[in-house]
Design brief:
The chain has helices at residues 2-17, 41-45, 52-70, 83-92. It is an all-alpha fold and 102 residues long. α3 (52-70) packs antiparallel against α4. The longest helix has 19 residues, at 52-70. The N and C termini lie far apart (55 Å).
Length: 102
């Protein structure tokens, strides 16, 4: 019984840290998943200023943002998360633009 609980816990941990995204460039157990940027949706869809929570998340995912923008598997998200909107949010957060957004 203990063995099954331990295996189930390990599976949950793996699923938690890899929710279907690709782990590009972070090396901290974080994944690159556009859904992690849901906190930024109001700033993406409106001219409003991003929240500090959004800016912190963008900072966390900055190293893989270009991959998210280029990876074909994320094409369904591009009506919202595209280069123009990424520039707007990253710039509004006062974060230096990565090369793919320049």
């Amino acid at each position: 019984m203990k063995k099954r609980v331990c295996i189930a816990a390990m599976i949950l941990v793996l699923v938690f840290f890899d929710r279907g995204g690709s782990s590009q460039g972070l090396g901290l157990g974080l994944t690159c998943n556009p859904l992690d940027l849901l906190l930024c949706l109001p700033a993406i869809l409106t001219p409003g200023v991003p929240t500090s929570f959004c800016c912190n998340r963008v900072t966390d995912l900055l190293s893989c943002l270009c991959g998210i923008l280029k990876d074909p598997k994320y094409r369904p998200y591009r009506q919202y998360l595209n280069v123009s909107n990424a520039k707007k949010v990253v710039g509004s957060c006062g974060i230096a633009l990565p090369d793919c957004l320049i």
